[in-house]
Records
---
Amino acid sequence: MTRSDVVIEADDLRVWYGSERGPVKAVDGVSFNLAKGEILGLVGESGCGKSTLGRALLGLLPPGAAMDGTLLFEGEDLLKSSRKAMLARRGSELGMIFQEPLTRLNPLMRISQHFEETVRTHEKGISKDEVRRRALEVLRLMGIPPTRYRAYPHEFSGGMRQRLMIALALVLRPSFVVADEPTTALDVLVEAQIIRILHDLRREFDTSLLLITHNLGIVAEACDRVAVMYAGKIVELGDAKTVFSKPQHPYTRELLRSTISLRTEGLNYIPGAPPDLTDPPPACHFHPRGPDAMNICATKAPRDRVYENGIHVQCWAADLAHGAVDLTDEEKAPLIREEISVADEA
Amino acid sequence: MLKLLLAPFRNTTGIARWILITGLVITAMFVIFAIFAPWIAPYGFAQKIDASGDRFPKMGEPSAAHWFGTNDQFYDILSRVIWGARTELTVVLLSVLLAVVIGVPLGLLSGFLGGWVDRALVFVMDALYAFPSLLLAIVFAFLLQARLGGAGILAAALSLTAIYIPQYFRVVRSTTVSAREETYVEAARAIGAKPRTIMGKYLFGNVIQSVPVIGTLNAADAISTLAALGFVGLGIQPTEAAEWGYDLSRALDDAAAGIWWTTLFPGLAIVLLVTGLTLIGEGLNETVNPALRKRRIRKVVLTRGSVTEPERPGTDQNEVVTP
Amino acid sequence: MSSQGSVPRYVAQRLLLVIPMIWVLLTVVFVLLRVAPGDPISASLGGKLSAEALADAKHRAGLDRPLIVQYFDYIKDVATLNFGNTFTDNRPIIDVVRDNGGATLSLTVGAFLIALLVGIPLGLLAGRRRDTVSDVVIRIFGVVSYAAPIFWTGLLMVILVAPTGWPTYDIASAETKFLVEPRTHILIVDTVLAGNTDAFLDVLQHHVLPCVALGLLLSGVFIRLVRVNLLQSLKGDYVEAARARGVPEKYVIRRHAFRNALVPVITVVGLQVALTLGGAVLTEKTFNWPGLGNQLVKYIVAHDYSAVQGLVTFFAIVVVVVSVLVDIVNALIDPRVRY
């Protein structure tokens, strides 16, 4: 990956927001790179912070949230950008595809008006015909016929609406797009179509895509690399095929084990529940649920290390397995935990 | 259940809290008037003669003896304002309670049972609800006066009850219907819970949350309507009790002559009490209604953790470990 | 355009619903008015006639027939727009409506317009600047204007204005009423039709006080409605999506939030007609306005059941018709409704 190829460079990103019980550490020290035309999958359970991260990359934070770290987009630090500059980038250079397509389109506005609004915001003085030409071009690529250009959102089916959203996000050819659970609200057949469209984006537009989802199957199918997120941190990051075939973090392993396929005979699940982000377990956040947790996991947080094939892992067990650290017998001893009560699991 | 009812009171913040407090203070003042009227009011509400046997002046201007002046029936306005609080609050309390007692169970039942019972009830309630409430109240008051022979307070209270039942019915029914479809209710049914248990345990709690808001806004409306009934002549006789609306109807003829005190004070009482109750309702609404709730923005400071936190990455970014 | 074609269909659907709605209301009115003990004639004329004269009057009025027969007759009459006659002065109700309906109409329309002009902008402003000083002030105004009884604000206005000589009661001077020929029976329209400018101005002057009083009351309601709807639409998902496309905040508010907030408001505003009718009754008594509300009060005081029944029936029908019209307008504005 050469320097000029890198579209997004995030370093120690933190996004915290205030609540009654203290700061919610939704994103707590996340670093990753994204190259041109690359698709990075971001997976994790609900509540791990992936949606917050997605929105933070576009600067769409809820009021009262604070963000720090470094976020370079094509070389410029977005965190130091003015609001006006961010506004100018959103839509034209940075794009977002949301989860529930029906509510994301204004029911009182025609599709044509949505396009006119988006394009004219960034290119003032452009004619309606020119907007129409560009919109139709993008819509054609999404498989939406030009006759529907003046229709209203509720006249489309769920899958088509999502394609409309994608078209709207892409009409100005942004170089980086975040797709936040784009297919969660759609049925499986439609999902396949949408994923194929997203996958082909790089061919048509050379767009870099961050695909946020909790569906591992999509990631395996469409993504180049995958980042596994847990309690605000990225615990494993690397080439999708490698991570899925040889997962190094216990959470990744458990996630893969709980996926259901035709060959599944018994149901696996990870005991316990995702941690409360205002007060996550100390040191390694996963230690209460890790099947092979050691004493050190509860006392010192593991560091992010890079192993062969460029895979990042944040785990003492992985470090130990690779011989990257020396641990005392005390530290290596298995962690004794109280029985996770039934109540905790609920 | 009390805790559920009081929960909205405790959860208010910011402006909503001020609104609530202001409303409570104003309403409290009138409640005090109502309860302590015999001790606070300088004279009786139908009193025309003072201690020494002299008649009160007719339409006397505000003076030391009569702070708010007197009206065309020789009554002291200040006293009638204070006694009026008792009338208004009694009638309204009675009617709102009755409406709740009838409307809420009906709504629960209707929402839960569904079918033709539900549909019939909904139709009737919608028809009543769509009708101008004042006109409906007038019709009811008209009827009840004949039946009860002009027994003002009871007739007024019952007419108000009649027009407010549909309100509680509707809200409770719609909450019940949507709650009925909730998965936890389905689960309860699946384990064989009796309908009574489901309604009582699961649905009631949900529904009871909205009652305080509606109740207070209802009370505010009821005071307005009661005063309107009094103004129109269907209310309470002045010798039976003091009623602000009635007093205003007496002030009509003399307004053009510039007599202002017969108008100003009773009307002011109405405005204040209705405002007080409305503020309570609005303040509660800001918290209970999730769509309006504004999450309190707390400033957050990003701090670095202790030894359990990893050191800043970047120091070992390029460390590649070979097996 | 496929969406346009279904508007006529929707309109037809709604119009068909009018009939059962009116029927239910009529039944309710009938039941209510028959619930009273005794009968209308005894109640209003009871003390003044001998027992035989009373029975005779009852027979003539058809009140000794079985209730169900009376019910069907009532429905049949209303269907032919026959609202019966008053007891006390034996006038056909339809005549009362014709003579006094116009005044109520011009009062309510005027008040409504004022309420919209004041209420909607203030509501939008308050919602947009939530929790700021302007929001609080506007909301207080909204609450107080609704809390203040119309007859109180009206009376205060009269007290304040009377010394200036501005007209404070009735719909026009005696002269105007005498000179202008009743064609539409809506006085202000008739003055225009008669080409009489003085008369027109006179009537307009008389409208000011009552319309402003009633209008302010209504505006309080509209302010709260609009504000709440705006706050809700600002939370809409499409608002966030628009922000994600870089649309500047002021356009987001204006184009997405405002417009979407106003759509449900239109429905609710239309339904305030019920409230307006109630308020009109009070306003008319306050200003001695010759409208239907004043007539209703007069007949109530006279215990004239027949008149009350006829007038209330008429009001019921008006309410239903207006609600249907509102639905149709809503369909024209909100494309989702047509499906």
---
Amino acid sequence: MGIFISGVGVVGAFGSGIGDLKACLERGAAPLITQGPGPVYRADTSRLEAFVPKKSLRRIDHFSQMAILGAFLALQDAGSPSLAAGRTGLIVCSGYGASQTTFSFLDSVINDGDACASPTLFSNSVHNSAAGHISILLKLGGPCLTVSQFGVSVPSSLLTARQWLHEGRADQVLFGAVDEYCDVLGYCWSRFFGEDDMGIMTPLSQERQSAVPGEGAAFFLLSKDKQEKSGYGAVVDIRTGRLEGEAADFPGGEAIYFLGADGHKDCDRLYRDMTPSGIDAACYSPLYGSLPVGTAFDMAIAALSIHEGKIFASPESVAGQERYRIIKEPSAMAPESIVCLKLAKKDEYGLITLKHG
Amino acid sequence: MNLNEELKKIIVKDLFLEDITWDQIEDDAPLFGEGLGLDSLDAVELVVIIQKHFNVEIKDMDEGRVAFQSINSLASFIRERQTS
Amino acid sequence: MNRSAPVAITGIGCLSAAGMSLGENMASLFSGRRRAAPPVRFSSSHPCPYPVFEIPEDALSNNAPENKSVSRTCRLGLAAAIEAMKDAGLEAGQFAGLKAGVCIGTTVGSAMNNEEFYRDYRSGMHPDMITIERFLQGNPASVIAREFGLTGPCQTVVNACSSGTDAIGIGASWIRSGMCDMVIAGGADELCRVTYNGFISLMITDDLPCRPFDRDRKGLNLGEGAAILILESDRAVMKRKTHIRAFVLGYGSACDGYHLTAPSPDGRGLTKALADALKESGKAAGDIAFINTHGTATKDNDRTEIKVLREMLPHVPFVSTKGYTGHTLGAAGAIEAAFTIACLEAGMIPANAGFILTDPELGAAPVVENTRIAKKTALSDSLAFGGHNGALVLGIEGV
């Protein structure tokens, strides 16, 4: 039950669009800004005005704007196909939802009293607001879903995208993931992990807590039918669940792993414990930061790798060479299959395998 | 600053109206539908705005419908409630 | 939308202000008993205390002892899951060799909106991080999976007010695809100040107990609760030799693409969701015993919903049970699915609490007294913020 990718749209610290992502992969670094207690990978949505008049974005917050931009970029990348309104599904997943707007709503209550709670902020704070805005702007009328499953939001909701396509509920699914940074998150980060102004992520280094918060969106146009033009390949396997003490049955062989390690020391240790050693592996989180839906960026990079017929070098700061063959030079080989693996505390995992279509 | 001017500035700012400045809003122009293009969500936001800035309560949207017809009607509604 | 095989429901658990078990809930519904009152667990500074349907803390403590490491939403979900598992004759440890997943709808359960924490943070204090830890460990689907030792997929659906309906529909699809032998599917949501203040700010709440479909209805009352359905594959049912209570026959989901908070006046999303659910079930309007409506008692919802139901299912009796439970947000679709099955089993639907006068604009009235039904199939639908619509066809034929 494979699903084919016909378009990819991404927004993050690296910029917006698949071209910016590719340039960042080739450069090996993404711009950091300093905000609040520490460095952050922030996303800029100014490109959205090319797709949506500013007037229509009036009440739409940064969280939804990132998602909307990701969605439009994916469609543009797919060649702007016409979307049969009732036959196009929409799935958006997010770890934390529209957290800034949630706190802005609380501000309206705390500042001016319960009777001055802002209805606009409230309606935008519900998790499915991004999907709501996208469905309105694109005039969609098919099935619609928002999922929040923290670090495995992406594989979990991708299962439903696959179901919809194979049940005939939709002919195409616009599938995306979005998470945003906000000051409260930065504060919690500093309370849990202390303050780190270095901003250098060293995922898979067992000893160092090096995660830097990131934000952004990654969207994909998916279908059941093979997509000759896009060259992004297909998602051929999706697994998610809980590992309860048993050894994980992860693919071996010729697969290249994109490890979702993102510098959180406790989670990074899970990769050492759970994955086969000696595998060919890459890790790209230093290019987009640490966020629950980071797997969506790995999936975008996997699709791009299949398209380009090569594996991009992992950023220099990625560790893990004592256990894996971390790919630190761009390699021109056409990957047989790419496994995007995410291990999330305490015991949840998600695995998405992409192959040439 | 008179009340009409104050209302226009507040509406532009608190409803995030991007493509119009306060002095382009006419006193008698409809606020909803064709005029400024405000909708039902703006209407309930406006209720909160009026409560916050002028401490005037709008109990339900029947009251709101009358008050929100234009800047003039909104200003006279507020004046009336503030003196009573 | 293709025709699909029915998915067995082998156990049900449900709690709300109307009762701490499905049986207690149905007793309240069929006796017309309801209790809406100003919230007890929290206060607000609104001049008018809008009533809610709150679960008393002592009642919840009997079913789910206080546990500070999980949210109230998770406690509600766990309590309903325990009842459902018992109803299905399932115990922890019986899942070896079975692929079992969890799909739960919620709104509050996934939101980091703890007001106390945020107030302290804003005022420069350094609040205890336990609130954040509880949030990070409190994903409702994960909490339930851990409680019962399930290792299959977890999915928390946050589709606002249709989440419970959607979670059951998605869970059923996991069974049909062979991905799971068993799914704990449902919804859970707690009352809190954020949603209380939020819905009041939208001016869609009633300062009296709500009146779904009534001419003088003014809006909704919030509620809290949870409901869980245990879905099982044919393989699991045969292996456990368990009894089946009902079937998920069909599910439909469609968005309006119209407005963030108001349903599309033409009801296009609801129309499609209902049509897809019926098509998947292979049933027609003439097979439907009744509709458990969304019926929140807001002007817009009830108007749109009745417009669609009159067109698609013109002679089918309908009821809103929110007059007994309030609007339980992410739990609503699941609670209403549970009620729908119980009504089919009882051969009866309860009176629509809060309804007195027909609204001429709606041109239709819900049932006003307990009403016998003979057919074995029913519909339950939900309309959500963001313009999402979900519908389930549920049946007891062949159990």
